[in-house]
Amino acid sequence: MTPAPPAAGRAPAAWCAAAFVTGIWLGAESGQGAALPLSLAGACGLLLAAWGWRRRAADGPARVVLGLLFAAVGLVQGSLRIAAPAAEARRAFEALPASADRMDRVEGVLEGFWAGTPPRAHGRLKAERLFDPATGSWRSFPADVFVFVSGQEPLARRADRGDRVVAVGKLRPEGPPASERDLAVPWPEYRLSVKSALRLENPRPTLLSRLAAPNRWLEERLPPAGSLGPGFERNVRGPLSALLLGRTSEIDRGMVARYRRGGMYHLLVIAGLHVGLAAGLALLLLRAAGVRGRARDAWLLAAVALFVTVGGGNSPALRAGIVFGFFFAARLLERPVPTAQAIGLSALLLFAAWPSEIYGVGTVLTFAAVGGIAAFASPLRRLLPRRPDFVFSGFAAAIAAQIATAPVLLWRYNVLSAGAWLTAPAALPIAGALIGVGALLLVVFAFGSTAAPLAAVFGGGSRVLETIADRAAGVAVLRPTPPIGLVAGVAALLAVAALARGRVRVAAWTAAGGLFLFLAVRPGPAGPSRGFTLEGLDVGQGDAFLLRWGRHAVLIDGGGPFDLDARDFGRTRLLPKLLDRGVTRLDAALLTHPHPDHALGLFAILEEIPVGALWRSSGDDEGSLYRDLESVASARRVPVRALAAGQSIAWRDARLRVLHSGGRRPKKDATNNQSVVAVFERDGRRALLTGDAGAFAEAEILLSGRPVQADVIKVGHHGSRGSTTPAFLQRVAPRAALLSCGRENRFGHPAPETLATLAAANVRVFRTDRLSDVGVALFPEGTRILRRAPQ
Prior knowledge:
Layout (H helix, E strand, L loop, with lengths): L11 H19 L4 H17 L7 H36 L9 E7 L10 E12 L4 E13 L14 E10 L15 E6 L5 E5 L2 H5 L1 H9 L10 H14 L7 H9 L3 H4 L3 H17 L4 H18 L4 H18 L6 H15 L7 H22 L6 H25 L1 E3 H29 L5 H22 L2 E3 L5 H16 L2 H20 L10 E5 L8 E5 L2 E5 L12 H12 L7 E4 L4 H4 L1 H8 L5 E4 L7 H11 L4 E4 L4 E3 L4 E6 L16 E6 L2 E5 L5 H10 L7 E3 L11 H7 L3 E4 L12 H9 L3 E4 H4 L2 E6 L2 E6 L4
Parallel strand pairs: 3-5, 11-12, 12-13, 13-14, 18-19, 19-20, 20-21
Antiparallel strand pairs: 1-2, 1-4, 2-3, 4-5, 4-6, 7-8, 9-10, 9-22, 10-11, 15-16, 16-17, 17-18, 22-23
Helix pairs in contact: 1-3, 1-12, 2-3, 6-16, 7-16, 9-10, 9-11, 9-15, 10-11, 11-12, 11-13, 12-13, 13-14, 14-15, 14-17, 15-16, 17-18, 19-21
């Protein structure tokens, strides 16, 4: 006889998990050692034993003590496994000799699959030790290291997920996050630039790499690119690798952009949702085969374990797999537990094994989605038609997950995707079918067959799902970053709606919906009503400056690396900065000259938000950047205008005067010296924008006789020695200067000579490599420095 399930309201594991997470966070942030947490844990354990907490009369107080016990254990975890290793890693790095040409050797385990391919490959190394050349010995270095690999050598065949390697390259602290919404972690993070995959030395397998061996073997059995005709790599190999193997390096970038804009990227890459879809497919097959009871639960448990293993233990899939595993294992053992209890138990297991997971946004989304399904799927299902049950049950679960995760997605990714809600009835069954067909395809490939008809079916389904994502993108919008306190308020109201009954539930639902709608439609903060602001955005070794006044915004350059193919830079580095500032549309984007460190970020800006116009210099194109940007602008119906010297662009209360654009090409720095140089003026305050103009362009501007005086100057060419000449600076007569350059950049910017020139003129310099995002607010009555300090 199957035991009766526990009462729905009795889920002590959920309460204990919340206390455990709180303890981990406090222990990680305090860094005060483990003596106090250990003492507190021991005291709570003794109290709990003395209380006789199993007696019903003592249930309430015992739960408090039980919660304190788990909080104390969490404090120990946070102190010993997060705070102490973080301090040890900092000491090891600080002990390295200061040398610009130092090459560092870091040993650790590769945590995930490589993203991208050389020369744009990157991955994450769980470092364990660091070689100290001063002592000639290894030092403990428990740190997270982001590894960036250049060169053209094949990467995954040399070292893959789970392998222990010694990586040789330039080790630097990771720079400040692109967005204020990037969760600050209490441990240092580093980046290691590796010239070639050959510098990943002495790869050795670990238990993790052996667990990932099936994934690696299946990936190696996939037919080579192009072997099954045109479109195979784009529509079959890439999506199949992402959907079932958790490898994203081969996904077409255009496909990724469509899924992201439509708010459906979670359908393309293996995650917790796919574990649920795989379990649902397995359940349908078992029902069709007449398998019931414990045998059904055993097969479901095996199916979930197999799916997570084949996916290489992808973190989101692993988290969801633990939750489903608890639920199916409890039924298999005839000890069914409430869903909340299963979620709490899985959280305790997950965070006991990996306490740092509490800082992951993916973790928050996973548990929000699972909790939303547990709380809201059944009430939603009762509102839908009875048949077919599997379709409407899946639809109810998807909507429940969307409800629970929508506040987090709006805050973290600024996405308001009505299209994803509207397309869920069609997208989810197709995604589930692709998982089923893809699994068969992997089996066929594993036996050495090409299975062209089956591949064609998968490719057709992939194209249909991409089309749905593209249509959903039409009703997906990016919104300003909402205040975290109000987002937490929506989450709290949803929790009340899940737990309450009657009128309280209705009131909580109404309040949560109203608050979320307010966050979704509220405009971001405006620029100043008088004067204007000019802010240098920290985009590394590049330029991106934001002009704002009232509801107007103009972006001057978009930053970018020197890799011409890295056109997602703006989406990950620049766009979050604009949205944090409430900028969801631009009057114009100005490209001063066609160099990648100024241009590449503008591709994503043109694709993602409304732009009134694209302005560029009248100089020559280089690297086809003008042509390619104009093509994107044309597709988005953004007018393009080549500015000429002497032109003026006027708003009702502001003006941009072009002092220089294009013109003669000198032998040295020809493209830089064709930069747009302009003065922006409002309410009697002026800012001079110089692009990468050097001494040649500065001399031509002075000869033209056009007025250049300004309150603030954007230092030309990142402060190189060939710009900002004393004669030019004397005519401009600024009080402050903004200078954008990368930390420890290979060009030596800014040059000591340029800094000396600025110092001699008593001009205060504010640099992005030292201050991150920094700017000035120029009001009629005075000037104020704008700082967004690095986290």
